[in-house]
Amino acid sequence: MDRRRFLRTLLSGATALAVAPTLLRSEPAFAGDPARFAAGLRAQPWLEGWSSVQTETLGPSTVQIEGRLPVGFAGTLYRNGPAWTERAGFRYEHWFDGDGMVHGWRFNGDGTVGHHARMVATPKFTREQKAGCFLYPVAGTSIPDMQPIRNNDDANTANTSVTMINGRLFALSEAGSAFELDPDELTTLGPVTWRPDLAAIPFSAHPLVDRDGSSWNFGSISMMGGNGLVVWHIGRDGTLASADVLETPVPGYLHSFAMTDRHLVFALIPFRYREGHGAFFERLRFQQDQPLRIAVVDKATPAQARWFEADFAAIYHFGDAHERDGRITVRAVQHVDVEEARSPMKAAMNGDVHGDAHSGTGTLRELVLDLRSGKARWQETGIAGVEFPMFDARTASSSPARLYAPIHAEGSTAPYFSRIGAFDLVRDRRQVHDYGRDVLVEEHLFVPRPGGTRPDEGWLVGTLLDAARGRSGIAVLDAQRVDDGPLAQAWLPYTVPLGFHGHFAAR
What we know:
Helices cover 10% and strands 40% of the residues. It is mainly β. The strands form eight sheets. Strands 16, 17, 18, 19, 20 and 21 form a six-stranded antiparallel β-sheet that branches. It has a five-stranded antiparallel β-sheet with strand order 1-7-6-3-34, with no helix packed on it. Strands 2-33-32-31-30 form a five-stranded antiparallel β-sheet, with no helix packed on it.
């Protein structure tokens, strides 16, 4: 796309951003009640996962490792998640609203793990910290006396994920710039502008690393009321390789995407806005009677797509994608309950221990895109109760990958994940480790064994919340022997709120 057309297309998005404050203007507050949440927490300690921090930093703490770390495992697990959810007697009621806190779990190499965490000092967090109250629009809660914003970085919570490119650490969210952090101190260095004319354009939370070390990502302009996706390509040196606008035929919501060696796959979930005012997720209504629109984009021509249609599906996260015999197969977790998908764990955010707080009902499905016929179809895998699927990115792009995902189990104390599983769909094999009914299990990342070349030769590292004992922890498992349980784990003498996604930086 030529530069003039690129800027003209972005202008439609910028116009939408300028309108956004009107779309998001103040409504009577319907947010959760901190006192109600506190009462729920006293009755059900697992709600600690959705509690609000009251301090800008946690730690540093150093704790002893139980068990033995495998030889070659060394580095830092960075994780991000919404952490500051209450101010001045007002509590967000949508899990995605809290301001981001980035955690660093550092394996010190001496049998100990160090933990420290720090709030991301976005303009939103800094100004609200000074004011002592929430001031700016968020994704799912109407804020009283809300202040106007100049662009989406004024409302950026930087609360969803982290990534590292060429040694630089970035906190990411869906709808704003990446915020660079110091990887040692976790202090905020500021928003990243990849090119001056692209300031504040969304750089979403799930970049994918290509085999050459470069990163692909997208920024959704259509989600803000404009039209299209910005397709980002960042070189392995951390500089911008390209940014193109992919025009989309309809508005569509997307949180992440999938990738093969040759193609990028974007799935647009159809939605409309409810009449009236309110925050984005308050007004958003998924349209189950409309098809899912899928863009298959050749990496050589990021501004062009071949479009497919498939039955509706509400998706946040994808697993692997593989391409063989003219077909692309994409693994994805589908949320069956679209209202739950619009506001996951809403009852937990409200401290409603009797409500239908449940984020573990996702089903793993395969989306098959036939490049010869132009047809798309879903096929079942028989796997349910999972989310946050991960895999070894070294797996050949022509072969299905083994997936790793937290699992919800009946009988768990919390309506959340309590197990971790490994799934080989080709051989119909699975391995499961049960952490126990009182433990809440978060995303587990795959860490390749140094020098290893075979897929799945490595470890899983993930974080935990032991609600019964009031502690948060970290565990390392052999990826090929998940059912053996952790090789090593460590527990903090305190709890931290549950987060979303992380990045392991090997040392």
